[in-house]
Write a structure and sequence with these properties.
With about 180 residues, the protein is α/β, with parallel strands linked by helices. The protein has one domain: Flavodoxin domain (Rossmann fold), CATH 3.40.50.360. The protein contains 6 helices and 6 strands. Strands 1, 2, 3, 4, 5 and 6 form a 6-stranded parallel β-sheet that branches. Strand 4, helix 5 and strand 5 form a beta-alpha-beta unit. Helix 1 packs across helix 6. The chain is globular, with a radius of gyration of 16 Å. The chain binds flavin mononucleotide.
């Protein structure tokens, strides 16, 4: 079982990174192999809505997203980690997710069905509603692709070290990793 995590934060060793790290440790303890892709280090152009993938079944944009399609399709678990930026996801994450358009094609879409889908969101606000747009987007996408959506981990963390200093959040991230990777 392989868990593939996508980190949408530009902060190295920030809150999203810390929580995903814990989640990966939990998944590894449950027997999974894990991998994290830092989207900020990838060159991923926004979808151009050219619709050419509809004809060719491949995205026409040749950038760092190209190899990630195969990685997504071969992973058993997909985990998304993003900070809230203006009540939404980060721009890095949005560009990445929009490129899933090229996975929403008849022969390909069914290959996503049944994969496990985890979500980690952090934000400065103390109200969890701040993350509701992000949760709605990914819960809807997971349902659309017939993926198994796990209860998201929502963490208040404004400064970059807040999550690292929050034992409850670290434990919850570890537990989510264990849960998602449960054989
Ligand atoms: C451009 C930008 C927009 C943000 N917008 C929000 C917001 O709408 N609501 C919120 O609670 N926090 C907001 N934040 C705070 C981040 O979500 C918060 O600091 C988060 O912990 C960052 O995660 P990271 O350390 O993984 O990058 C924003 C931060 C930035 C840089």
């Amino acid at each position: 079982m392989h868990l593939l995590a996508f980190n949408g934060s530009p902060r190295l060793r920030g809150n999203t990174w810390t929580l995903l790290n814990q989640l990966k440790r939990g998944a590894e303890e449950a027997g999974a192999t894990t991998e994290e892709v830092i989207l900020n280090k990838q060159h991923i152009k926004p979808c151009q809505a050219c619709e050419s993938c509809k004809k060719t079944l491949v995205c026409r944009i040749k950038d760092d997203m190209a190899p990630l399609y195969g990685s997504i399709l071969s992973a058993d678990m997909i985990v998304i980690g993003t900070p809230v930026y203006f009540w939404s996801m980060s721009a890095q994450m949005k560009a990445f997710v929009d490129r899933w358009y090229a996975l929403d094609l008849d022969p390909i879409r069914p290959r996503l069905a049944g994969k496990r889908f985890g979500l980690v969101v952090c934000y400065a606000d103390s109200a969890t509603e701040t993350a509701s747009g992000v949760v709605y987007a990914f819960k809807s996408a997971a349902a659309y692709f017939d993926m198994r959506f796990y209860e998201p981990l929502l963490v208040t963390a404004g400064d970059r070290n807040d999550a690292a200093g929050n034992p409850q959040a670290l434990q919850a991230a570890f537990a989510l990793g264990q849960e998602i990777a449960k054989p």
